[in-house]
Specification:
By secondary structure, this protein is an all-beta fold. It has strands at residues 3-7, 11-12, 18-25, 31-39, 46-51, 57-59, 67-72, 77-82, 91-99, 102-105, 109-113. Strand 4 and strand 5 (46-51) form a beta hairpin.
């Protein structure tokens, strides 16, 4: 059974940095696109960033220049480095990946940006 488990969410001050990690486990033959999404209270889940198996990245306009997505294929992990965090980045962050040609979601990790 395939699982995605996120870690790294916490309370951080505006202007601070945080690194989220997501580990894939289980019977895995292939991992294609991996990504991060977020959902703020009262809002729909939205794309933050994706990275395909070749390393091509895509970012939401709201995080360009501040967030960086990366992956380690050998470790089956994807990361999200978040810099210059703003209160509007507060949300539950979800890891997402196409594994064995199926979509999987993690359970989410809370990021709160507040002074």
């Amino acid at each position: 059974q395939v699982q995605l488990v996120e870690s790294g969410g916490c309370l951080v001050q505006p202007g601070g940095s945080l690194r989220l990690s997501c580990a894939a486990s289980g019977t895995i033959f292939s991992i294609n696109t991996m990504g991060w999404y977020r959902q703020a209270p009262g809002k729909q889940r939205e794309l933050v960033a994706t990275i395909n198996s070749g390393g091509r990245t895509n970012y939401a306009d709201s995080v360009k220049g501040r967030f960086t997505i990366s992956r380690d294929n050998a470790k089956k992990m994807v990361y999200l480095q978040m810099n210059n965090l703003k209160p509007e980045d507060t949300a539950v962050y979800y890891c997402n990946a196409v594994i064995n040609a199926s979509w999987y979601w993690g359970q989410g990790t809370q990021v709160t940006v507040s002074s």
